[in-house]
Prior knowledge:
- The chain has helices at 14-31, 56-67, 88-97, 112-119, 135-149, 167-178, 213-217, 230-234, 241-248, 252-255, 278-281, 288-306; strands spanning 45-50, 71-76, 102-107, 123-129, 156-160, 182-186, 208-209, 222-225, 263-265.
- With 314 residues, the protein is of the alpha/beta class.
- The protein folds into two domains: 14-134 and 292-306, Rossmann fold; 135-287, Aspartate/ornithine carbamoyltransferase (Rossmann fold, 3-Layer(aba) Sandwich), CATH 3.40.50.
- The strands form two sheets. Strands 7-6-5-8-9 form a five-stranded parallel β-sheet.
- Helix 4 links the parallel strand 3 and strand 4.
- Helix 3 packs across helix 4.
- The radius of gyration is 19 Å and the shape is globular.
Amino acid sequence: MNRKDVLDLDDFTAEEIALVLDTADAMKEVLSRPIKKVPPLRGKTVVILFYESSTRTRVSFELAAKNLSADVVNITASTSSVAKGESLVDTIRTLQALGADMIVIRHSQSGAPYLVAQHLDGSVINAGDGWHAHPTQALLDMYTIRERLGRIAGLSVVIVGDVLHSRVARSNIWGLTKMGAKVTLCGPPTLLPVVSKNGCRGDLPEVTVEHDIDKALSGADVVMGLRIQKERQEGGLLPSLREYVQLYQLTRDRIARAKPGALVMHPGPMNEGIEIAPDVAYSTQSVIENQVSNGVAIRMALLYLLAGHRSKQI
């Protein structure tokens, strides 16, 4: 893959996305072995630098790097020199001087990984920055869809919830549309981006916006719920969580409007009983647990490709 960093999917081509997904197939084969370790990153140092709390993404990246035999260093901002006032750039310079080959960063400020990429000779992977992007989550979502339905092109994907503040939604919109899916955004007007009459916003590709969830879900192949954060309600963007549940919760009756066998997805963590009903979250249509396990394969694929490897045989 002819790129140094993975910061978002807006500058990825469909061919690059397909390369990552195909390479993840090889990584899943590795993960099925009794010994889930191969040597491609032996001698490389991967630093996982998180300025926000995380379970799924952090552990997934750590497992991915260790499965590829990399040396892994975990840094939590609250227990590092950041707590003493060290700037992000100074932190990156220190890590580079200590021999970091790759840095996986999550930061509350949108654009932080781009700044890191300017000051690091090695590769940077964005593990989530503010409201902006979460490319590896979008890639594992697409991988899960392709694994279950056999394709992405031509599918109808509905994203329901707080799209406006979701870095997951933004990266998914870019990735899914580039792979040929039709994307519909659904939720309260206060939680959706403003789009023009032709269905696109200046920093997003073409999408459809539908506030009526019953219409949005009609004929959908994939339904992706997004987490509703209580601070949105406190900020006046939602009258109440109870009203959101009545109008937009993913229930069995609503999912029944989608195509038979439609996938139900959620990037996590879920608020059961708010954005998704428990009997839907744990139904046979739900692939939420598959999303989590596929995250390791996708992140292995990215680390592998950024390290300069081209063969899928490992």
